[in-house]
Amino acid sequence: MFVRLHFAVFAGICAAAASVFGKLSGLPAFENSIILKILCFFLMVCCNTCVWTLFVKALHQSGSSLHATVISNASNFLCSALMGYLIFNEKANFVWWIGLSFILGGLLLVICSKDDEKKSIDGTSSEHEHIH
Fold first, then answer.
1. How many angstroms separate the CA atoms of 103 and 65, rounded?
2. Which domain, by its residues, includes 13?
3. What predicted TM-score, i.e. pTM, was given to this entire model?
4. What is the mean pLDDT of residues 34-56?
5. Which pLDDT score, from 0 to 100, does residue 129 have?
6. Using one digit for the tens of pLDDT, what is the confidence trace for 72-109?
7. Looking at the chain, which terminus has fewer C-beta neighbours within 10 angstroms, N or C?
8. Half-sphere exposure of 33 (CA within 13 A, CB side)
9. What CA–CA distance (Å, rounded) separates 63 from 74?
10. 84 burial class (0-12, 13-18, 19+ CB within 10 angstroms)?
11. Nearest Cα to Cα of residue 16 among 106, 85, 99
C-alpha cells in the first residue's frame, strides 16, 4: 500500500520547507535586508514548485489520490512541527499532538477502509474466497 508513495512523503517535506522559507521572509530580522527577503521568497516558490511536481508523481504512482494526499499531509504536519521546533523554537503543546494523532489516525482509517472496499470489489477479500 505505501511502497510507491515516497514522492508523497517528499512532497510533504517540501511543503513544510516552503512554509519555513515563507515565515523566514517575514521575520523582523530580515526587515532591512531585501536580498534575504527575496532569497527566502524565491526558495519558497521553488519548494512549492517541487511540492506540486512530487505530488503529481505520487498521484501517478499510487493509483489513488487518497493515499497520496494522506501521506503528503501527514509528512507535512510532522515536518512542520519538527522544523518549527528546530528553527523557530516553537513548542507544540500536548493538545496539538493529541489533535495530530487523531488526524493521522482518521486518515489511516480512511485509507484502510478504502483498501478493504477495493479488495472486496476486486473479489480478493477473504469472505469472497470462502464462498467459492
1. 18
2. 6-121
3. 0.77
4. 95
5. 47
6. 988 998 899 899 999 999 888 899 889 888 988 887 78
7. C
8. 13
9. 18
10. middle
11. 85
Three-state secondary-structure class, residue 27: coil
Q: Which amino acid is at 21?
A: F
pLDDT computed for residue 119 by the predictor = 61
Give the number of domains in the chain.
Answer: 1
**Domain contains 128:** no
Q: For 5-8, which contacts have Cβ atoms below 8 Å and span 24 or more sequence positions?
A: 5/58, 5/61, 5/62, 5/67, 5/68, 5/71, 7/54, 7/55, 7/57, 7/58, 7/61, 7/68, 8/54, 8/55, 8/58, 8/62, 8/67, 8/68, 8/69, 8/71, 8/72, 8/75
